[in-house]
Write a structure and sequence with these properties.
With 470 residues, the protein is an alpha/beta fold. 43% of the residues lie in helices and 12% in strands. It has a seven-stranded mixed β-sheet, sandwiched between helices. A four-stranded antiparallel β-sheet has the order 8-9-11-10. Helix 10 (245-255) links the parallel strand 4 (226-233) and strand 5. The model has no long low-confidence stretch (mean pLDDT 92).
């Protein structure tokens, strides 16, 4: 008689095989919404209980069949990488123990593990852990939101009590044409309005044009507005561009503006010898966003917010109540330094991933991704494609003379590649207006053989759509 396993034993048996066979699965799924909904209605009746051992195989099958597998070695899409073993185990342990990280006394081990991890990463970023603050967030958008709140608190003394009504002159923040769209949502949410976000043109390298920025700031100030914040992007979503960080920090200092670096993607560069020089100047920013669920390959979501100035952070998130425990001796209660209150143990998966690989191991993994991107670039050039961006990060934007100069043509070609199921790429509009195909090496499991498959798929779809080989 075969002994019955528990749901936890079933899960432990299944997890190792997921990563092992991922490369043999199709990257994409062609399922339609009604098919998924019908399956759920047929197999699950939520009015009554179902033994987990009966339900789990069905759920696992759904996730295998009906998912775009972002952990696949031939997923060259957005920043959703393969995940470390330590990250997966960290997620499970955090859920099982379920510590509440609002206050230190409820979760001393969890709070200190997060602090220890953030202090280490602050050192890699060039920040002083003794004088700076940092915390985990659900993702980069939350970290960027936090940065804008802190900048407003610092730059407008009446902001905390009166909001936008207390500002002298309409607030203005500046982002490059390649910046993340989250800043428009954030401007809406904090009440300064989407029009407060000023888009700065880019130069020939797709970086924020500092001369154009200077001109816009001067013109806005003369018009009675108050420029208060510059956002430098370190690893743009479309092209992996890193803005000129040192120049932007210097400009912000002269103008008395808060300089935030959105390094949600590119922050991982501080862990590699190859990429670290491209982030020169990040240590002098007022605040930084960095997503561990992108470059550090931990399960989503694991954003981080770093700030050189504790006082505006503390002022922005101050709270007075009778139902929370008294602060610890050092007064650093998590809920008093973050937008969140109740929060799960986000940092454990980052900590265990660092324990598993160490900074040196990450250097090897990330250098490997960059090397694979180099192989991709050379293969595209050899195949007659034009490289449209020069990011040092493992992201490649490219086009071909066969592809008409329209975003639609690039989207159609990308869709044709995805439909075949062997690889995933996307189409983007670059910050200078050029349409392009985009491939990002997000997985540390991607090999030159996977690149060869991608190149073959792209070429087959190009020939299929345009009917000839140049």
């Amino acid at each position: 008689m075969v002994p019955m396993v528990t749901p936890f034993e079933w899960l432990a048996q299944q997890l190792p095989s997921i990563a092992a066979r991922m490369g043999d699965l199709p990257v994409t799924s062609s399922v339609q919404p009604q098919q998924v909904r019908s399956f759920l209605a047929e197999h699950f009746d939520l009015e009554q209980s179902t033994p987990l051992l009966e339900a789990l195989p069905a759920v696992s099958s759904m996730l295998e069949r009906w998912t775009t597998h972002v952990t696949h070695p031939r997923y060259f899409g957005n920043f959703n990488p393969s995940v470390t073993d330590g990250g997966v185990i960290g997620e499970a342990l955090a859920a099982a123990w379920n510590p509440q990280l609002a206050v230190w006394c409820h979760a001393p081990a969890a709070v200190e593990i997060e602090r220890f991890t953030l202090d280490f990463l602050m050192g890699k970023l060039g920040l002083d852990a003794e004088s700076c603050l940092a915390h985990f967030t659900g993702g980069g958008s939350e970290a960027n939101h936090t940065a804008v709140i802190c900048a407003l608190t610092q730059c407008f003394p009446q902001w905390a009590e009166q909001g936008a009504a207390g500002c002298e002159g309409a607030p203005r923040l500046y982002v490059s044409a390649g910046a993340h769209d989250s800043f428009f949502k954030i401007a809406h949410a904090v009440g300064i309005g989407r029009a407060a976000v000023r888009i700065v043109p880019v130069d020939g390298d797709l970086q924020m044009d500092v001369t154009a920025l200077r001109k816009m700031v001067i013109e806005d100030a003369r018009a009675g507005c108050t420029p208060f914040m510059v956002v430098a992007t370190a690893g743009s979503t479309a092209a992996g561009t890193i803005d000129p960080l040192k120049r932007l920090v210097a400009f912000g200092r002269v103008q008395g503006m808060w300089v935030h670096v959105d390094a949600a993607y590119g922050g991982f560069g501080v862990l590699t010898e190859r990429l670290r020089p491209h982030l020169d100047g990040i240590a002098f920013a007022d605040s930084i966003t960095f997503d561990a669920h992108k470059g550090m390959s931990v399960p989503m979501g694991a954003g981080m917010f770093f700030c050189r100035h504790p006082k505006p952070v503390e002022a922005a998130f101050a709270a007075a109540n009778s139902y929370m425990p008294a602060p610890t001796a050092d007064g650093s209660e998590p809920y008093l330094n973050t937008l969140q209150w109740s929060r799960r143990f986000i940092g454990l998966k980052v900590f265990l991933s660092l324990v598993e690989h160490g900074a040196r191991g990450y250097d090897t993994l990330l250098e490997g991704q960059c090397a694979v991107a180099d192989v991709l670039i050379q293969g595209l050039i050899d195949g007659g494609w034009q490289i449209l961006s020069q990011s040092p990060l493992p992201m490649v934007c490219f086009s071909h003379q066969d592809v008409r100069a329209s975003l639609e043509a690039h989207e159609n070609l990308a869709a044709a590649v995805r439909k075949r199921g062997q690889a995933w790429i996307s189409a983007v509009t670059l910050a200078d207006g050029q349409p392009a195909l985009r491939a990002c090496v997000t997985s540390f499991r991607t090999t030159p053989a996977d690149v060869a498959t991608l190149l073959s798929e792209i070429q087959a779809c190009r020939i299929g759509r345009f009917g000839h080989i140049s």
